[in-house]
Amino acid sequence: MYIMIMAGGVGKRFWPRSRKDRPKQLLDIVSDQSMLRLTYERMKKIAEEKKIYIIAGQNLAEVINREIPELPERNLIIEPSGKNTAPCIGLAATTIIQKDPNAVMGIFPADHLITDIRAFKKAVNQGVQFARDHVALVTFGISPTRPATGYGYIQVNTKEPAHKDNIFKVKTFAEKPNLATAQRFLASGEFLWNSGMFIWKAENILNAMKLFMPEMYESLQQIGMAIDSPKYQTVLKKQWATIHNNSIDYGVMEKAKNVYVVRANFDWSDVGSWDAVYELQKKDKNGNVLIGEIVPIDTENSYIYSRKNLIAAIGVRDLIVIQSKNSLLIVHRNESERVKDLVDLLERKDFSDHL
Predict the structure, then answer these.
(1) Using one digit for the tens of pLDDT, what is the confidence trace for 276-310?
(2) pTM of model > 0.90
């Protein structure tokens, strides 16, 4: 199996630590290693290193090379610009199919946390076998442990298992729900968290793109014919400019009829906000996560980070406080997903030195 690690995200929800030149996936936010390094080490346990690829923008190429110096140059695929997951996956599949027309490939984000490697490997092997034996697009659904409103959901047909190894036909995909809807999802027993991880034959995902995203498919065909030729970069930039921003879920998965899900039981987090980081970390007796020179008085259930300046806190409750470089973020833990909106505002107000 070939592995494609998607590492082109901008990580706006992790500002001010996440910046354009070092986004979330290159930060050590859950351990002393970056999210990308953790992902790469995990993938080494399920595939040959020579078959592990990373795809990202040109602006991150140098820092990725420093972070994963053992990655062969040919295994770093460069997107001319970020255009969401469908073009990213299409370029990855186009590249891989030139090397192996029968390739089975796995798509994995660079910024997810999975610690139960044995269960993860078992689920991936189930997905690989199913994708190899069927004309199927396989995704992974995580058994929900709470009515989470920050995840998308996958509805499955639990009455008709498609495979002895816990693989089901997908009924539908659901966007991030409100709390009441998430509670109904959980009570039904038919919904899994949408992990954003996939396995399929490169040929099958490209055929699905031909059916549902024909204009993008034609551009990918032009790019594919130029791979390993002197005109590759020219063709790539020209065709990429014509490709529209689109997610793989909206562009293909929600429309295709041959989508299956592995109901996985490994621990998983997309680490989608600073509050998610807080939940993953070990707390002190007051429920705080304190990193750096932090002096708290009567402070509880907060995440406070500063590697540069002393932060003193009095009477603080349920806050995220992040000091990084030239910026300071203060946000209630329940509002931490809105940091993305704040970064969008900073962009509009031209605070580029802080991004």
Answers:
(1) 999 999 999 999 999 999 999 999 999 999 998 99
(2) yes
Burial class (CB in 10 A: 0-12, 13-18, 19+), 205: buried
- Give domain status of residue 269, yes or no: no
Q: What is the 3-class SS of 223-243, one letter each residue? A: HHHHCCCCCHHHHHHHHHCCC
Q: Identify the domain boundary among 244, 264, 284.
A: 264
CA-based nearest residue to 193, from 92, 137, 269:
269
Q: CA–CA distance from 140 to each of 108, 155, 264 (Å)? A: 10, 12, 6
Q: How many residues does the chain have?
A: 355
Examine residue 146 and state whether it is found in any structural domain, yes or no: yes
- Using CA atoms, how far apart are residues 209 and 148, in angstroms rounded to an integer? 31
> Which two three-digit tokens encode residue 90?
């299409």
Domain assignment of residue 154, given as a range: 2-264
